[in-house]
Amino acid sequence: MLRLLPSLSLLLLPLISLPTQADDDPAVARGHEIVTEADNRDKGWINTESTMKMELSNAHGDVSVRQLRTKALEVEGDGDKGLTIFDQPLDVKGTAFLTFSHALEPDDQWIYLPALKRVKRISSRNKSGPFMGSEFAYEDMASFEVEKYDYRYLRDEMLDGIDCFVVESYPRDKNSGYTRLVTWFDKAEYRAQKINYFDRKNAALKTLRFSEFKHYLDQYWRPHRMHMVNHQTGKSTVLTFDEIRFQTGLSDRDFNKNSLKRAK
Amino acid sequence: MSTLPLSPKTLTRLLATSALIATSAPVMAQDMTQLSGSFELELRSFFENPLDPRQHNNTLSIAATPEYYHSWNDEQDALTITPFIRIDQHDAERTHADLREFNWLHVADNWQLRSGIGKVFWGSTESQHLVDIINQTDSLEGVDGEDKLGQPMLHYSYLLDAGDISFFWLPYFRERTFAGVEGRPRTALPVDTDRAQYESGAEQWHQDFALRWSYSFDAVDLGLAHFHGTNREPTLLPNTGNPATATSLIPRYEIIDQTSLDLTSALGDWLWKLEAIHNSGLDAGDYNAAVGGFEYTYVGWLDSDADLGLLMEYHYDSRDQRSTRPFQDDIFAGLRITLNDFQSTEFLAGLIYDRDNHARMGFVEASRRLGSQFKLSAEARLFDNLSSTDPLYGLRDDSFVQLTLEYFFSEQL
Q: Domain of life of the organism in this record (chain A) (predicted)?
């Protein structure tokens, strides 16, 4: 779950080659092509470390802030590994999550409770639940794997003056909280610019906007601001990254239960 | 995700320089010094008058748990110092201080060593912690056995291809804490901790050892461990040798060997859990005990953001009614509600029922963050239908509610 965002941009794009439905449907092939390109452009980042702030707001204007750090490791041939540590609110400071994402199997997830020094495995079906009270669901934060979705190209469209492809994605996991996602990719860099989420009843649920993109290592685009609005509750969450560092020397050793217990 | 043309390691090396240039990110983590922790104010209120007139119906107390943390050498070395102090209105024993942690951690490629006073948790189940044996229980802090005293240790962990293996050298034993004469809840007779007895002539300096292998594979977490040393749980003996005339209880600590297994398996919305021990060396004879069950989580309960968790566990102890633990043929059922709201509101309620003597022990815990730096918790513990042979018989009139207000702080130095 929480391995958050270093690759959220890519995560949110569904895609890969699934030879299921209508392989001969040109919209399916085109959708696949677009997302594959977006995914390929985001390979080889190896590992990242970032700090971020989540600001939760409700319809009454109440605001609550979470501060967290994440470490992520790209894994060849499987989902990525992630470690997320809470700095705020202070009552959960030091609480940490370890996630091993998998393409088709359920993710492995553990939580570390610093007061008890206890590592607990968490039920892996918890995808659709809110992450720390925010409008981001666990599945929104998870490592993107192309095999997780089916997709279909819808149309070309201008979005705030940016020329975009619009692609629809259908989660293959029946535990997903969504029936479909509609994603706008800019044609210039294949970055996700906007996602509309539709709930299990296919009603409009949330909209996520990405902005303040920065370019890293001459290859990787990362949005430093993500704004999720829930249309059904009026609640919203703004996620901002203070800092993203690439290739900091993290390895597999930094993603196990011992490193989870060392989290500070 | 994708197949890389080079191994990640090679690439990391190749790109290390460019990463520095591209992001000017420091590859070495900086030294960090931090002071954090909490203060708390607690009120306990008992429903019934005490068995012993020296005890009280209401008790106020305050506690502090500051933590100093300093890391250096690219986070490969860290010093943690966590003192704890509580001041209780009535109970001179509960007014106590402890060093929960005072240790140096060194992390290398495939191993790590923690030296000093520390805390370690082993186990998987929720309603009893059978396997967890490294740290002594600070029973003054709570009746659930989850509060622990700092344990002097050398704790060496080595990463294997399959999990990791840990060696523990525990050079000094910590005696269990017990409520004082005015303290509550407590056993019917107070425990005289000043007269503790030991099987070993070395007493608290008996050298204890433990070994543990833990491994996660597929959706399973497995732990196998062996402990040799001073039993963390004392036998309580009448001070006069005769229960009829005794005025206090004396704790006696024996040398034991305990082999344990703990297991968690995730299957969809279900978590299956098991803890089992074989214990030998007690004068009263060897025994086996186990606790196992499940936790089922229903996400998005009633179309809301809330999660509903259902828990059920069964307790077994081969000593039956001779068991020193209250749970030998008991069933635990629990309900956890997590609202997933801004203030992280949570409820947990549970009931443990003894199938033999029909004793019932219930609890309710609720907590909610207030603003960004406070947390309010409420807890109720209910003891009902305890028979005179139950180890908890002394608590039969000690049902209580407790309110706790905590303040949290954190400063980077």
A: Bacteria
